[in-house]
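Recall from the previous lesson that a structure prediction takes nothing but the amino acid sequence as input. Here we apply that procedure to Probable disulfide formation protein from Virgibacillus necropolis. The sequence below is the only information supplied.
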Amino acid sequence: MNKIKIKQFSLYFAWLVSIVATLGSLYFSEIRGFIPCELCWYQRIVMYPLSLILGIATFKNDWSVKKYVLPIAIIGWPISLFHYLEQKIPGFAEIKPCANGAPCSAEYINWLSFITIPFLAFIAFSLIIIFMLLIKSETKSK
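The prediction returns the following tokens.
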């Protein structure tokens, strides 16, 4: 019974993280008026479907969804890491300059001198990956 609870809560928390990340990105762009850069759009392209996929899987208790969610989250993880490095390490900004809209090195928020929007996305992708790995490890131990 304990294993089932870990599976259920891992799936539920992964969904919750994806919902918060999706709503947070919409808040920053639609309410605060921050223009998303090119890398922000890539992160959104990866995160938004996770909200839907994880939501359906949570309601259906479909733990096999990890086969689909884990690769998607793993794609978003390095994008958000690279985006964060572009903001925080001056040398990264010249590697790939963003031509459309806002520059990727722009920091709309900078809480505690290190928390930026790409950092929040990085944490969200990391948590989703961790929760999916918890489901995977629990499934293998059956």
